[in-house]
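Sanity check. The docking grid for pyridoxal-5'-phosphate depends on where the pocket ends up, so I'm generating a full predicted complex first rather than guessing from homology. Inputs follow.
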Amino acid sequence: MVQIQKIFIVELKKTKMENTLHYAQELDKNDELGHYKEQFHIPKDKDGNDWLYFTGNSLGLQPKTTQEYINQELDDWKNFGVEGHFEAKNPWMPYHELLTESMAKIVGAKPIEVVVMNTLTTNLHLLMVSFFRPTKTKFKIVIESDAFPSDRYAVESQLRFHGIDPAVGLVEWKPRENKELLRMEDLESILDTQGNEIALLLIGGVNYYTGQYLDLKQIAKLGHAQDCMVGIDLAHGAGNIQPELHDSGVDFAAWCTYKYLNSGPGSLGGLFVHEKHAYDKDIVRFSGWWNHNKDTRFNMRQPFDVIPGAEGWQLSNPPILSMAAIKSSLDLFATVGMDALRKKSIKLTGYFEFLINEMNNQKIKIITPTNPNERGCQLSIQVKDADKSLHTKLIEANVITDWREPDVIRCAPIPLYTSYEDLFNMVKVLKRLLED
Ligand SMILES: Cc1ncc(COP(=O)(O)O)c(C=O)c1O
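Predicted complex below; grid placement will be based on this.
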């Protein structure tokens, strides 16, 4: 965890918060990042009232600059055709390189360790091709029992691809009975007992369901002590927490950009391969022309010569329109900076937690960790005896949240576009619906 955040959290704990609209508005007035909300399109109801949007952990809102960035590429395509690869304002040939530095900063990596390409599940597969190399004796993969379904399916299919029955090869890191959160000691004991058979840990850095942010450095340390490869799904981490991927020592990571990184539905993903693997040309991988040496790519008929670093996992020439949307969002992130963003996020979610606790409703339990070091912005709120009709009523009241069966509402206050007043109003609606 970044040092400035530790100091900030200690200071924040001393603050006495108030459950009043006036206090929420004062927080907004003093919020240095408050004006960024104006840079986003906030969806509205049919009467023109803004939605209270808490699903940026599912699909981030559209920055107002995105259209302009995409239009630039449409114009360049219109005006230059194929020559746009070299003549466009931002030439398409090296376009992905424009994203690398700011993306690397967001996840705490070196530029050589990061590339934007494909989509998340595809990237997880490509990374497992390289980093899941099972042997007769070391062939298992550990995931969280509550891993996102796509990760589970991807892992099961990789095991089957290698002729391994998932019933034998898949090991689940589970919360203890009647608990929701994972404990590092339990991963440690899995590794103590089965470490000699485990080839890979593939763990969600921030769990999609509980919002728990796991200690990546510790996971890497435990995994590496048993000679396992360590990979992280950062779908719920990128643009949310500061995972410091390079320092964590994990071997690889992959994430999407359509959640916290606001790049639009189904947009491209990010991929990290630690520098320690950057120059190893012997790593088994799938290839295409785009991970071949840039200097000789167009000489054609050259023997394959892999690019060092994360770019060495690319396959195809990338979709520029999608990358333009990512660029518009990353340019915004570069202006704000992750330190400032995370600071606001800690404060914002802390206020949200305070307001929910103030409801003093016995039916409600926040299952996300209370320690800001162990969560991002999302709070997962369990509502006893509730069903999906609560979620529907929230939508009818312009509060957009995410419902997870059987009884959890996931809400993500987004530091770039959620105000303290939004939180106050959201909790007011929730309170009313629960009392009705
Ligand atoms: C944690 C996690 N992993 C994987 C995925 C799948 O992503 P994609 O459809 O981009 O492959 C998601 C999608 O929301 C996710 O939240």
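Relevant for the grid: The first helix runs from residue 3 to 14.
Also worth noting: The chain has 15 helices and 13 strands.
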